[in-house]
């Protein structure tokens, strides 16, 4: 008769043990300092794990209106601190569950409580990650640098035009072109349409400025700004430039290394520019007679350039605003 009660007590102990073991994951999954701490975020909002985003948002709004510090009036002074803590917990639960990625990490923590380090890593990686996409930040920075580049180049170009307007040589030639094309004939109106000398002078200055802009090709650092030269376009066109350079280099090696062709004038000037370590814009700013001097001295040959000295000084002594005038 005593065997049955003893067996019942054994089954009872086994049942209690199984229930205790089955409840361990739910307890150990709640880590202090992560998400809602020892509280389940779903329970904080009073929703199930299958709740939709709309249900979660609705539950949050209801609880937020109830426990918001500006609305909640506790009966006891000590309840005020508890209500503030409760409100922060509600906000934390909502921030955790409203985002799909954060909610997925939280659900994984509830289902896999044994992976402590993985949960801490996922939580702090998300909290410390930048809120804005790094690619967007880089793109905005490149656009800002490009805008500053373009504005700076426009300013330099305008300074060059202002300088050339004061040069008598270009000013006189611009006036002659303006008279030939009848661009200044409008300054001779009579009667009611007659303008003051100041207005006529302003129009002449504007006409001269426009002619100089259109007829003079400024080279070097003061050349006319182009959108293709800014950083953003240069980066976008980099694959094209790279492929073109590879094709050019392969053709150069084939012509002058494999086939042993003679250098043309263009190739000689390129080698001279490379020996002088000048950019294309800097080399273009040199006067034509200076380039001819380089060709006569055969400075495309490295040995000749080293023997005859640093011809880069000749470039430094050029005019500050080298131009190719079409006046």
TrEMBL record:
Domain of life: Eukaryota
Matches recorded under Gene3D superfamilies: DnaJ domain
Subcellular localization, as worded in the UniProt entry: Membrane
GO cellular component terms, semicolon-separated: endoplasmic reticulum membrane
Sequence ranges assigned to domain J in this UniProt record: 40-110
Pfam families: DnaJ
InterPro entries to which the protein is assigned, alphabetical: DnaJ_domain, DNAJC25-like, J_dom_sf
Signal peptide: 1-29
Main localization category: membrane
Bilayer disposition of the protein: Multi-pass membrane protein
A GO BP entry: protein folding
Keywords: Chaperone, Membrane, Signal, Transmembrane, Transmembrane helix
Membership in a protein family: Belongs to the DNAJC25 family.
Database matches in PANTHER family: DNAJ HOMOLOG SUBFAMILY C MEMBER 25
Name of the protein described by the UniProt record: DnaJ homolog subfamily C member 25
């Amino acid at each position: 008769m005593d065997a049955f009660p003893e067996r019942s007590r054994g089954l009872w102990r086994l049942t209690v043990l199984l229930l205790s073991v089955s409840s361990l994951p739910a307890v150990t999954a709640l880590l202090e300092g992560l998400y809602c701490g020892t509280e389940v975020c779903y329970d904080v909002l009073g929703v199930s794990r299958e709740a939709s985003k709309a249900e979660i948002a609705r539950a949050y709004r209801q609880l937020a209106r109830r426990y918001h510090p500006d609305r909640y009036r506790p009966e006891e002074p000590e309840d005020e601190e508890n209500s503030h803590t409760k409100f922060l917990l509600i906000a934390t639960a909502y921030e955790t569950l409203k985002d799909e990625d954060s909610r997925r990490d939280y659900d994984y923590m509830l289902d896999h409580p044994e992976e402590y380090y993985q949960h801490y890593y996922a939580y702090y990686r998300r909290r410390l990650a930048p809120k804005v996409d790094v690619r967007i930040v880089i793109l905005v920075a490149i656009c800002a640098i490009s805008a500053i580049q373009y504005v700076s180049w426009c300013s330099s170009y305008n300074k060059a035009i202002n300088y050339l307007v004061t040069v008598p040589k270009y000013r006189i030639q611009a006036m002659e072109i303006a008279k030939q094309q009848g661009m200044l004939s409008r300054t001779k109106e009579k009667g009611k349409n007659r303008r003051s000398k100041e207005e006529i002078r302003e129009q002449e200055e504007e006409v001269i400025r426009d002619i100089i802009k259109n007829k003079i090709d400024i080279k070097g650092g003061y050349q006319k700004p182009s959108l293709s030269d800014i950083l953003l376009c240069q980066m976008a066109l980099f694959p094209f430039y790279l492929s073109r350079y590879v094709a050019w280099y392969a053709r150069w090696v084939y012509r002058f290394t494999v086939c042993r062709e003679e250098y043309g004038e263009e190739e000689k000037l390129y080698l001279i520019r490379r020996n002088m370590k000048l950019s294309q814009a800097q080399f273009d700013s040199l006067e034509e007679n200076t380039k001819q001097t380089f060709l006569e001295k055969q400075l495309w040959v490295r040995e000749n350039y080293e023997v005859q000295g640093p011809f880069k000084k000749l470039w430094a002594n050029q005019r500050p605003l080298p131009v190719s005038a079409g006046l």
